[in-house]
Task: inverse folding
C-alpha cells in the first residue's frame, strides 16, 4: 500500500515540476495547449482576417490570396496561366495578355510576389510577380485583384532572381537564372564558359499608373543568378543578387556547379547605372519582346511587340558592380529592415553569412580587392563579412525579419525555422517544419517596416499530414505565431500549386480600396451594350457579332437565328448587374475555349465556330438567382449555303 | 414677442432642410446582404442609400411582381411636396417677420402650426397609401406568388414606421435628418406661439394696468 503512495507522490511531484517549468516559460512554449493555437487562428464567421497573404502558385502560373491567421483561401488570381474558371486567357480580351515573342504561351512558373512600396514601406497598390520559364513580369492591381500588365524579358532564361522591387517602387528587378547567349544564336553548348551572359533587367514603374518599361539590362558574367533583394535605407540604390555556378559549368550541374567553396553575391549600384544610362550610356540592342496591358475601362488587353533594349556592360560603369564572396551556392540574399545587413544563405552549408553594407562601402573605398571576375572586382570575404550565424541547421534558404531585431531563416535539409538575433548572431529558437521548407514570409518582412506577428513557412515538396489524396496532392504551408520570444506553430493549411514565396500586408491597407463591381457607365469596351435595347446581332462576311446583355435571370437576346456552319460567332456579353457578387456566366455547346465569367459592369467575348447544323443551347454558368436555371437561350445554325436571315429576339419580340 | 417671432422664423426655416436631407429611409437587410439595400425618400424623389440600391431593389422585386420604384416624373407628389414645403416655410417666415414688427399676433403662429400638422398627417397618409399600393398591387404574371398561411396573397408593404420581417428580409422604416429638422422646426413654432402668447398677455396686462392708473 505504501508503494502506491510513493508512486502517486512521485507523479504529483513530476506534474508540479512540469507545470512549474511551463509557467516559468510563459505561454509561448511548445507545451502550450492546442486549444490556444486554435484560438489564435480562429476567425469567427463574419469576422475578417488581419492580413492578406499572396502566395505564389509556382507551376500553376497563378497567385493565390489567403487570409492570416485563418489560412483561408480567398481567391486565385490568374496571371500567366489560362484559367477556365473566369475565361482568363480564353476570352478574346485576355488572350493578348499571354502573348510573347514565342507566340501565345498559356502557362508559366510563378515564383516571387512582391508588394509595391513607398519609402521602404508597403503601400498596397500593386503586387509584382515573375514568370520563370518564359521570362515575364506581371503587375497585379490590388484594387481589382486582377492582372493588369505583363512584360516579357528579352535576353533572359529562367527569370528567377525576380520580381523584387526597390524601396520606392522605382524598379522591378528581373535577373536571369540561366546564363544564355546574348543575343541568342546557334553555338556549341560546351562553349558556354566566357560566352554566355547573365542579364539583370531593371524595369521602371510609373509612379502614377504602374506602367512598366524595360529601362536597361546589365549584362553580367555567365553565372546563374538565383535570388535578389533591394537595398533599403542606407543601402537604397543598391541591389544584391545571389549567384551559383560561378564555375560556369554546362553539364551535370549538381556536381560541376558545386565545386567552388564560395560563390558570389553581386552588389549592383543601380543608381550609378541609371545615371550612366540617363546620360546616354549603354548600347541599344535589337530584340523582340511583348508588352501586354489590360485596361479596366475597355476590359481589354493589348499586346505590343518592343524591338529594342538598352544593355550595359558593367565594366564600363566605374564603381557600380562588385562581387561579395559567399559560401556555398547561396540561395537567399536578404537585406534586413535597416539596410545594413545582407544575409547570404549557402544552401549547401550549415551557416549563414552576413555581409555588412558599411564594411562593403569601406572596402570599395579602400580598393581592397581579392582579384576580379571578367573585370568585376571581388571584395575580400573578411573585409565585408559582419558575422556568421552558427545555426546548427542544414541548407539555409531564405531569411525574413520582424521589427524587433530578429531574423527567421528556413532550413530546407533540416526542415526547420530558426530564429536568431541580428548583431549578436545568436540562435534564440528553432522549430521544426513538418515538410521540406523553402521560403518563409512575414507580412512586410522584406521591407523597412515588418509586421512581425506571424511567419508563414512554405513547403517545397508535396508531402503533407492531411487525409491522403493519391500520389498527386497539394502543397502545404504552416503558420507560426512569432509575437513571443519562442515561435509557436499554430496552423497547417494546404496551398495551390507550389507556394514558392509569398508577400503579405495588413488587410486594412487594401480592404477599403478593393473594387466590388465595375461601373457600367464607365465601360468603354467597343462591343459593350449599356442598355438591353442596344442588344443586336450583326454579320460582317462570315463573322457574326452578337451584342448580348445579361441580367438576373435572362440573356438579351435569347433566340438567335440565321447563323451558318462556317461562321465565326463572337459573343460579346455585357453584365448589366451593378450589385456586388452577381457575375453571370456564358457557355455554349461546342465552344472550343472555356466558359466566361463576366463581372458586374464588365464585357467579355467568346468566339464560337459552329460546325454542325442544329439548334444549340447556351446558358449561364454562374448560379445567379432562383431562376438561374432558366437563364438560357438557343442559336439556330443552318447549312453554310442557307439564306435564312439573321434575326434575334427576347420574349418573342 | 420679438424673441417668439425670431423662433417662428427659425422654426419655419428649418423646413427648408427637406430640400437637402432625406425625409425618410427604408432599409432592407438580410444575412446575404451584409450591406443592406436602402432607399432614401426625399420630397422630390427617391435615392438609393448606396449608388446602385434602387436598381438592385428593382432587380429583386421583379421576381415577386412589384412595380419598379417611381421616378420623380411618375408621381405628382414629387412635384407638389417641394411646393408645399417651400410655400409653408415662406409663409412661416413671413408670419414671423410680421410678428417681429408687431403686425401679427401669436395666434398666427398657432394657426401656421395647425395647418402644417394637418398637411403632415395628409402627407403620411399619402405615403402609406403609396406603400400599400406598391406592396400589394403585384404583377399577375409574377414569377413567384407567395401566400400568407390563410391563403391571401402576401403583401410586401414596408412598415410605415419601425421594423417588419418580410420573408428573410428585415425591413426598417425610420425618419431621417430632413424629418427631424422639420419636427424640431414645428416644435419651435409651437413654442414661439406659446411664449409669444405669454409676452403679449403680459403687455396687455401692463397696458390695462397703465390705463387703469391714468
Ligand atoms: Cu446568370
Result:
Amino acid at each position: 500500500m505504501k508503494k502506491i503512495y510513493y508512486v502517486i507522490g512521485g507523479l504529483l511531484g513530476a506534474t508540479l515540476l512540469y507545470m512549474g517549468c511551463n509557467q516559468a516559460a510563459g505561454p509561448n512554449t511548445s507545451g502550450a495547449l492546442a486549444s490556444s493555437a486554435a484560438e489564435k487562428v480562429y476567425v469567427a464567421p463574419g469576422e475578417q482576417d488581419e492580413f492578406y497573404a499572396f502566395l505564389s502558385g509556382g507551376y500553376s502560373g497563378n497567385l493565390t490570396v489567403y487570409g492570416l491567421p485563418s489560412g483561408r483561401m480567398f481567391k486565385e488570381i490568374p496571371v500567366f496561366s489560362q484559367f477556365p474558371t473566369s475565361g482568363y486567357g480564353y476570352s478574346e480580351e485576355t488572350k493578348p495578355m499571354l502573348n510573347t515573342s514565342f507566340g501565345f504561351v498559356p502557362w508559366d512558373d510563378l515564383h516571387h510576389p512582391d508588394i509595391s512600396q513607398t519609402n521602404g514601406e508597403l503601400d498596397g497598390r500593386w503586387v509584382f510577380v515573375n514568370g520563370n520559364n518564359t521570362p515575364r513580369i506581371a503587375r497585379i492591381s490590388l484594387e481589382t485583384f486582377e492582372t493588369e500588365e505583363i512584360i516579357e524579358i528579352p535576353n533572359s532564361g529562367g527569370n528567377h532572381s525576380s520580381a523584387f522591387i526597390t524601396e520606392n517602387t522605382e524598379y522591378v528587378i528581373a535577373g536571369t537564372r540561366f546564363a544564355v547567349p546574348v543575343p541568342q544564336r546557334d553555338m556549341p553548348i560546351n562553349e558556354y564558359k566566357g560566352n554566355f551572359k547573365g542579364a539583370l533587367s531593371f524595369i521602371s514603374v510609373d509612379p502614377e499608373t504602374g506602367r512598366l518599361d524595360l529601362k536597361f539590362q546589365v549584362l553580367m558574367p555567365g553565372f546563374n543568378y538565383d535570388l535578389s533583394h533591394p537595398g533599403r535605407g542606407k543601402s537604397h540604390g543598391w541591389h544584391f543578387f545571389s549567384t551559383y555556378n560561378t564555375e560556369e559549368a554546362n553539364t551535370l550541374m549538381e556536381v560541376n556547379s558545386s565545386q567552388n567553396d564560395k560563390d558570389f553575391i553581386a552588389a549592383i549600384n543601380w543608381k550609378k547605372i541609371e545615371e550612366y544610362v540617363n546620360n546616354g550610356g549603354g548600347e541599344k540592342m535589337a530584340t523582340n519582346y511583348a508588352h501586354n496591358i489590360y485596361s479596366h475601362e475597355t476590359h481589354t488587353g493589348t499586346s505590343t511587340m518592343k524591338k529594342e533594349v538598352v544593355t550595359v556592360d558593367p565594366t564600363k560603369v566605374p564603381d557600380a558592380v562588385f562581387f561579395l564572396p559567399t559560401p556555398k551556392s547561396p540561395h537567399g540574399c536578404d537585406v534586413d529592415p535597416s539596410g545594413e545587413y545582407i544575409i547570404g544563405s549557402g544552401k549547401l552549408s550549415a551557416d549563414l553569412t552576413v555581409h555588412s553594407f558599411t564594411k562593403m562601402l569601406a572596402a570599395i573605398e579602400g580598393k581592397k580587392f581579392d582579384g576580379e571576375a571578367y573585370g568585376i572586382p571581388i571584395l575580400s570575404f573578411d573585409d565585408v563579412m559582419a558575422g556568421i550565424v552558427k545555426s546548427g541547421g542544414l541548407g539555409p534558404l531564405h531569411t525574413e525579419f520582424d521589427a524587433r531585431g530578429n531574423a527567421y531563416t528556413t532550413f530546407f535539409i533540416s526542415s526547420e525555422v530558426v530564429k536568431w538575433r541580428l548583431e549578436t548572431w545568436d540562435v534564440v529558437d528553432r522549430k521544426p517544419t513538418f515538410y521540406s521548407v523553402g521560403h518563409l514570409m512575414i507580412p512586410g518582412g522584406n521591407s523597412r517596416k515588418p509586421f512581425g506577428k506571424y511567419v508563414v513557412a512554405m513547403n517545397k515538396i508535396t508531402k503533407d499530414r492531411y487525409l491522403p489524396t493519391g500520389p498527386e496532392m497539394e502543397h502545404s504551408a504552416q503558420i507560426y505565431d512569432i509575437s513571443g520570444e519562442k515561435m509557436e506553430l499554430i496552423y497547417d493549411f494546404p496551398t495551390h500549386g507550389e507556394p514558392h514565396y509569398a508577400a503579405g500586408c495588413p488587410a486594412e491597407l487594401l480592404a477599403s480600396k478593393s473594387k466590388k463591381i465595375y461601373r457600367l457607365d464607365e465601360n468603354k469596351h467597343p462591343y459593350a451594350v449599356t442598355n438591353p435595347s442596344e442588344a443586336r446581332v450583326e454579320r460582317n462576311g462570315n463573322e457574326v457579332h452578337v451584342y448580348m446583355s445579361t441580367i438576373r435571370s435572362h440573356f438579351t437576346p435569347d433566340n438567335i437565328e440565321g447563323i451558318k456552319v462556317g461562321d465565326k460567332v463572337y459573343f460579346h456579353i455585357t453584365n448589366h448587374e451593378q450589385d456586388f457578387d452577381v457575375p453571370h456566366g456564358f457557355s455554349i455547346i461546342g465552344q472550343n475555349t472555356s466558359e466566361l465569367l463576366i463581372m458586374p459592369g464588365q464585357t467579355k467575348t467568346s468566339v464560337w465556330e459552329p460546325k454542325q447544323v442544329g439548334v444549340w443551347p447556351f446558358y449561364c454558368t454562374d448560379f445567379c438567382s432562383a431562376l438561374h436555371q432558366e437563364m438560357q437561350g438557343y442559336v439556330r445554325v443552318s447549312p453554310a449555303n442557307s439564306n435564312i436571315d439573321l434575326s434575334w429576339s427576347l420574349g418573342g419580340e | 414677442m420679438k424673441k417668439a417671432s425670431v423662433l417662428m422664423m427659425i422654426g419655419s426655416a428649418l423646413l427648408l432642410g427637406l430640400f437637402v436631407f432625406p425625409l425618410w429611409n427604408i432599409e432592407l437587410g438580410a444575412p446575404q446582404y451584409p450591406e443592406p439595400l436602402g432607399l432614401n425618400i426625399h420630397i422630390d424623389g427617391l435615392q438609393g442609400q448606396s449608388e446602385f440600391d434602387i436598381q438592385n431593389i428593382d432587380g429583386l422585386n421583379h421576381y415577386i411582381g412589384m412595380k419598379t420604384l417611381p421616378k420623380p416624373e411618375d408621381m405628382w407628389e414629387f412635384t407638389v411636396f417641394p411646393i408645399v414645403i417651400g410655400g409653408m416655410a415662406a409663409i412661416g417666415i413671413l408670419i414671423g417677420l410680421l410678428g417681429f414688427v408687431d403686425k401679427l399676433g401669436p395666434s398666427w403662429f398657432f394657426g401656421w402650426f395647425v395647418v402644417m400638422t394637418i398637411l403632415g398627417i395628409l402627407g403620411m397618409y399619402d405615403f402609406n397609401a403609396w406603400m400599400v399600393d406598391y406592396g400589394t398591387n403585384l404583377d399577375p404574371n409574377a414569377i413567384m406568388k407567395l401566400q400568407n398561411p390563410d391563403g391571401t396573397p402576401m403583401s410586401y408593404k414596408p412598415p410605415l414606421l419601425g421594423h417588419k420581417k418580410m420573408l428573410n428580409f428585415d425591413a426598417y422604416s425610420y425618419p431621417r435628418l430632413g424629418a427631424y429638422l422639420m419636427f424640431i422646426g414645428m416644435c419651435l413654432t409651437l413654442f414661439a406661439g406659446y411664449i409669444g402668447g405669454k409676452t403679449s398677455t403680459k403687455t396687455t396686462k401692463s397696458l390695462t394696468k397703465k390705463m387703469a392708473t391714468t
In short: Chain A touches chain B through eleven residues (CB under 8 Å). Residues A 553, 584, 620, 622, 624, 628, 631 surround copper (II) ion (CB under 6 Å).
